[in-house]
Amino acid sequence: MKYSVVIPTYNHCDDFLKPCIDSIIEYTHLEDIELIISANGCIDNTLEYLNNLKIPNLKVLWSNQALGFPKAVNLGIKASSCDKIILLNNDTKLLSQEKNTWLSLLESPFDNPNCGISCVVKEYSRVMMRNFAVFFCVMIDRKVFDKIGYLNEEYGTGSGEDMEFCILAEAAGFQVLEVADKIKLDRKYFTGSFPIYHYGEGTVHDNKLVPNWKSIFLKNALKVAEKYNVEWKKQKNNNHPKIGVITPVYNDTEHIFHAISSVKSQTLSNVVHYLYDDCSTDGLDEALIDFDSVVYFKGSQNKGQSHARNHAISAAISDGCNYLAFLDSDDIWFSQHLELALQNLRTKNCDIVYSTPEFITEDGNFVFPYNIPVPHVFIGKQLLHNNFIWVSSVVCNARCFLNEKFDDSLNSIEEWDMWIRLYKKDKNFYKQKEKTTRYLVRDNSEASKGTQKLPLLQQKHTMLPKLKLHLACGHDYNKDYINVDLYAPEDAKCDVRFDVSKLPYDDNSVDEIKAFHIIEHFNFFEIKEVLNEWYRVLKPGGKLYLETPDFLETCRSFVEGNPSTGMDIESWRVLLYGHFFAHPWLPGQVHKFLFTEGQLRTNLGWAGFKTVDRVPPASKYVMNETQHLFLTVEAFK
């Protein structure tokens, strides 16, 4: 035997491994190779296939656990017995050729006595600013492993270990040489003068096996650059100014190290983590002795998280941090959190970036625990009534806090108070679509205590405007209202989307509800519950401004016609079908019940409304000759 061929495999027996081995059998003199299959984490038919595979010089290395590419490959290398070792991905397939042609091509660069690695193709790495051998098909002389060791298993799932191996090999005096002309991309297969197909990251693009491949790929590429590319690191730090991470903590050793780890996992460098311990008594200071990745402060007495945040912010600004990012001790960030936020801060002309987190309980269940409206874009007028900005998602320009501190008299709603103050100072907020934060929901969460101190906030911000809801706004956007529509088209400008029969507002909190042409979309039994819900959220004296088709007048006009329109009676009747039925083929667009004036007054009375006045119709559907077909009222709580 002259060559050891190592193939790592992780499921995908029928679509990758079997065609790969079949092509080796067809185009190779098997007596010249030993075939080493490093199977790891396979739960498909891989084991059955390998047990039935009858070829000479076959070695099967089996692991029940998924090991990742570098570790699986290393096991194969250690089990090999030849001086030339070929690493071959399971998603490759040899093309038609004379037997052993592919082996001869891989061997040919070794005519150069300095060659240590031959490869089918090199690729350029942007972060490394150099070419490296792509390890889907490479031949490596054993003396390279003897001198520099095996693939670095710190890269886990894979990606990056091939770059690092090539760097170390070249530093040790070996050359990395291509065997043939450059390979070209043909659809999703790598093809070219070397007789091989490479599907290209077939296993890692299987979301069931590797659900976060893009993040792993980027993180590992940056890891290589941090270790070996000094110029790139300098350039990166120049492009990304200093970021101060602000974390208050009190008796939370159970979670704080997950938060710290998530900061360390960020794809950006030049990040400093400021952690203020608000006089914990659970041994946190001792547990942090070996953590040199945080700037640690400990208060002499417990003063609350506002004081803790303010102290850490002052330290970060004093240290020259350009940006501040907030992370509570029981929350975590995904690895691209800071990178995406910084990108948006620069490109969206804003001062503050935030996003809606993922919410998870201590049992690991994903939930949405808070009954509040969450706009899909920043709506300042909504912020004045509901806090939809979670602090652990916020990244902002440090200038925002040069003259601002969290109010320590408002513990549990001090964050909300801060966002309102910054909004009133004309700071620009931007809501990021990507969810990059995971928020832990605890039974004793401070969020549940916020409403107890809401009067303090209302007293502090005496100029809060009236809270006015425009339900089922469609394309009729009104800047004086919070515009709501669950079924609005994507191009419609609405502020929030939720079911108007279940309003995410507190009792007695809304000044006005405008509900034009929505009540008729509920059936007779639903209408009572809907009107009760609207009545619940209105303040005493609050107004319901409602418009709906007038059933009696519509029926009369259907029978008698409407000469003022100039239409013949049958054409007019067709037009009136919209009043009766609306658009049943569209979601949420069918009429289920129509009112006479008396019926509407009765239903509003049942809900609790004391005063009901009929007023002129005002919706976009009203024309001079059709005013009598609409029933418009103002009802007061």
Please characterize this protein's 3D structure.
β14 (243-249), α9 and β15 form a beta-alpha-beta unit. The chain has 19 helices and 30 strands. By secondary structure, it is of the alpha/beta class. α16 packs across α19 and α17 packs antiparallel against α18 (569-581). Helices cover 30% and strands 22% of the residues. It has a seven-stranded mixed beta sheet with strand order 3-2-1-4-9-6-10, sandwiched between helices. Strands 16-15-14-17-22-19-23 form a seven-stranded mixed beta sheet, sandwiched between helices. It has three domains: 3-198, Spore Coat Polysaccharide Biosynthesis Protein SpsA, Chain A; 240-460, Alpha-Beta Complex (Spore Coat Polysaccharide Biosynthesis Protein SpsA, Chain A), CATH 3.90.550; 468-636, Vaccinia Virus protein VP39 (Rossmann fold, 3-Layer(aba) Sandwich), CATH 3.40.50.
Count every beta strand, where a strand is a DSSP E run of 2 or more residues: 30
The low-pLDDT segments are 183-191, 444-450
Query: Which sheet architecture does the biggest sheet show?
Result: 7 strands, mixed
In the CATH classification, which architecture of the largest domain applies? Alpha-Beta Complex
Biggest β-sheet: strands ordered side by side in the sheet:
3-2-1-4-9-6-10
- Give the helix proportion (percent range): 25-40%
CATH fold field value of the largest domain: Spore Coat Polysaccharide Biosynthesis Protein SpsA, Chain A
The residue-averaged pLDDT reads 87
SS-based structural class?
A: alpha/beta
How many independent structural domains? 3
The CATH class of the largest domain, by name, is: Alpha Beta
User: Can you count the helices?
Assistant: 19
Strand content: 15-25%
The CATH superfamily of the largest domain is identified as Spore Coat Polysaccharide Biosynthesis Protein SpsA, Chain A
Radius of gyration: 33 Å
Inertia-based shape: globular
